[in-house]
Amino acid sequence: MSQKMDFDAIVIGGGFGGLYAVKKLRDELELKVQAFDKATDVAGTWYWNRYPGALTDTETHLYCYSWDKELLQSLEIKKKYVQGPDVRKYLQQVAEKHDLKKSYQFNTAVQSAHYNEADALWEVTTEYGDKYTARFLITALGLLSAPNLPNIKGINQFKGELHHTSRWPDDVSFEGKRVGVIGTGSTGVQVITAVAPLAKHLTVFQRSAQYSVPIGNDPLSEEDVKKIKDNYDKIWDGVWNSALAFGLNESTVPAMSVSAEERKAVFEKAWQTGGGFRFMFETFGDIATNMEANIEAQNFIKGKIAEIVKDPAIAQKLMPQDLYAKRPLCDSGYYNTFNRDNVRLEDVKANPIVEITENGVKLENGDFVELDMLICATGFDAVDGNYVRMDIQGKNGLAMKDYWKEGPSSYMGVTVNNYPNMFMVLGPNGPFTNLPPSIESQVEWISDTIQYTVENNVESIEATKEAEEQWTQTCANIAEMTLFPKAQSWIFGANIPGKKNTVYFYLGGLKEYRSALANCKNHAYEGFDIQLQRSDIKQPANA
């Protein structure tokens, strides 16, 4: 007996990706759409990440959608970079202006999504046991939203306040408290810098020292903002034709093609200007690809650490031992934080955490750090984490966690073989860029593809195994041309114990990625298995 189709499309996620998917499919394709999010409101990753110091590493005027010209002109731009509350405020404005919330069921986690081959429908079950069916499934689960909790003996017996940065509660007070922070990645750098002036005492448990440069989050004048808004068309054109989509002048100058004096001057200017991506990609064109150039950047930052940190022993602990080949960090005074009398640095690679007790942290050398609050800034099971944690089954009941056991694969980061009519936003092997422009590019391609299936009486569209394997190999080949795989980084899954170190991103840049999407569409979806509608299959719910 065939099932009734409840919706044309089900969207999971209420961040940048989910909101735009609802807008495109509901308002432009006029499909019947239902969206879910486990949060109480929109904002996706930014709904959960409310920790002190939370800040984008993308400049404010480009951490937004390009498609709403009115909102671009009314966008509140106060500083060069945008803080978490302002991202949430912006996404609220988008949702309210376009009445997107009426398509959402909040406070609702999706438990499972199973593909029914007989009816060519996705069957979605929520945490409450409610079941819904749809022709298309759009998963906007978030790149950085599956929390990675540290597996440390005794962590659950800690009697003080225990917080993970990605599940931050309201109204946390640090006054008079002894605080510990585990983790010194992007989130850790931000939260450490923000908490140090507020806490009675702060202990930083560092596993890996980080390269970080000043963020340079300066206030923008009315004249600066007017110049941006008057030139938005030109700015966005530059974004679409760039590799990183950060609005940078992406350098093509090899670092070793200039004198040592000039090289130092270029680095110094970037240090004073601020911005992690600016430092890595606007100074010279080969820092991420040439070892000699990379070492020059390493040495410059290490020199700054030695200058800033007054205690040579602490400065030495803060010196990274890895390549400068992770997502480039920036900060609001991170290294200077370790000059404070109330801040202590523990190198837990040299002196590991043995156990967490009711009252604090026990180290291998016998030292005990008493704490009132412990903050886990231990990042995320990034990219595929939310996919393998959800019960997603494709054809023949194939569980995605099993299909991706040896590492995730996809075709262009948006589709997966064995999972017909399922489209991912920021899935594995999508572009490594400023995220909103990549999200827009993917959602627009997904919308165009769904429109194609509706107009051409297509029952299902599915990436072929060959196309998926070829794309995955392309991503691996491009990654091998860079230094990124040589560093232990979350962008290759290295932050999760036991997780296979594999490629998770397409590092060929946004311009080339958009070309790949366009070529696929313009060549009648070459690389896809397309099945036409059968007479016994239900037509779209809006028909």
Give an overview in words.
The chain is globular and about 75 Å long. The strands form seven sheets. Strands 1, 2, 5, 6, 7, 8, 19 and 20 form an eight-stranded mixed β-sheet that branches. Strands 9-18-10-11-14 form a five-stranded parallel β-sheet, covered by helices on one side. It is an alpha/beta fold. The chain folds into two domains: 7-146 and 381-532, FAD/NAD(P)-binding domain (3-Layer(bba) Sandwich); 155-376, no CATH class.
Please give the structural blueprint:
Layout lengths: L6 E6 L3 H13 L4 E4 L8 H4 L6 E5 L9 H6 L6 E3 H14 L6 E2 L4 E7 L4 E6 L4 E9 L21 E4 L13 E5 L3 H10 L5 E6 L5 E3 L7 H9 L1 H9 L19 H14 L2 H6 L9 H18 L3 H6 L11 E3 L2 H4 L5 E5 L5 E4 L3 E4 L4 E3 L2 E4 L8 H5 L1 E3 L6 H4 L18 E3 L5 E2 L3 H21 L2 E6 L1 H16 L24 E2 L3 H13 L5 E5 L11
Parallel strand pairs: 1-2, 1-8, 2-5, 6-19, 8-20, 9-18, 10-11, 10-18, 11-14, 12-13, 21-23
Antiparallel strand pairs: 3-4, 6-7, 7-8, 15-16, 16-17, 22-24
Helix pairs in contact: 1-15, 15-17
